[in-house]
Amino acid sequence: MIEEFDFDRVANRLEEVCKKRHAHDFYIKLNEMGVLGALERKVASLPHFEPKELLTLDLDLAGMQQIVLQFYGELDLELKNRIEKTLSDPFFEHKFSEPNGNGINEGSRVGFEWKNNVAQNGEIVLNPSNNLIGIITVAHEFAHLLEERIQKRIKNKEDCLGEIASMFIEKVFAEYMLKKSMIEKKDYRILKEHDLNCFSNNVRVLVEENEILSGLEVPISGVQLRELHKKYAFSDRKGVLMRRVQQMTGIGMPKNVQPESGQKRFRYVAGEVVSGALFEDFKKNPKETLGRFENFLSSNAEMEEAEAYQTLLGENYFQKLSTSFQNLNVEQEKSK
Ligand SMILES: [Zn+2]
Question: From the CA of 13, how far away is ligand 1's center (Å)?
Fold first, then answer.
């Protein structure tokens, strides 16, 4: 059935563009480790929540930043100082915009881009939506500013560690807002549901991509896969592959959302599990956990995954990770 679509021709053409980072290898690794099977079973047991109205904020960008920096300052003054220092570094070009839109994805594109000009300047893009997810995203992106790879201006690796710090900060910040009565329990719960929907969506994409790739038996790189997403996700072309690509990009998602695949998406899956474990530690022992978090921040550019988990969670990191994985559901929050 896959022959209906002339995949080889497209893949070969894309092969010329980029030969690095084969998505095949990534999925083979995940399969060998049993990760994909575990994720698939987990996601089958997760409820899907109807997206609910998010709290709208009456804040401009300066107001959002002020709240977020205040939060960092209360968490650890050193972290706040480091963010402010990076923000004032002329190496980074800023493209910040006022909060707009009210959608979850729409208008909330933020992050880092690396310009391939002579100076290799990094660009920080911050374009939050005017709601709770928007301000959480500001806190998330500012956590990236703390990472050593940013400070050292190392181009983002497509590893599995890239979203741990940012997703941990999201959790701490959400709880901070709840404690400061900036949001209500209901809003906190909607956030949790949103996070879980993102998690299960990401897992589904990983599992489906893996099915496609193992069915194709053509080595294809992560970059090629992303090109395919972009090119064909919304086209009318027929064939099993096309329908699968449509499924993996998430029907109903705004077209301006950058499709992500493979390693890049796995970062959010791993990020959810690892940051969840770290957050549990933080609730029990904030000071010690923050110390470990800082050790992670200051060396993650060089760390292997197991080393990073150990730095963050201690010797029994594997146990903590599996508990965090098992606890991934919103019912946990009910009883607290
Ligand atoms: Zn991020």
Answer: 31
Q: What is the pLDDT of residues 261-271, one digit of tens each?
A: 566 778 888 89
* 190 CA from centroid of ligand 1 (Å): 20
For residue 100, report the distance from its CA to the centre of ligand 1, in Å. Answer: 19
Compute the half-sphere exposure of residue 178: CA atoms within 13 Å on the CB side of its CA: 17
Distance 167 CA to ligand 1 centre (A): 7
Ligand 1 centre to CA of 216 (Å) is 31
Q: What spacing in Å lies between the alpha carbon of 119 and ligand 1's midpoint? A: 24
For residue 261, give both structure tokens. 């695949």
Give 26-71 pLDDT, tens digit per residue: 777 777 777 888 888 888 888 888 888 888 888 999 999 999 999 9
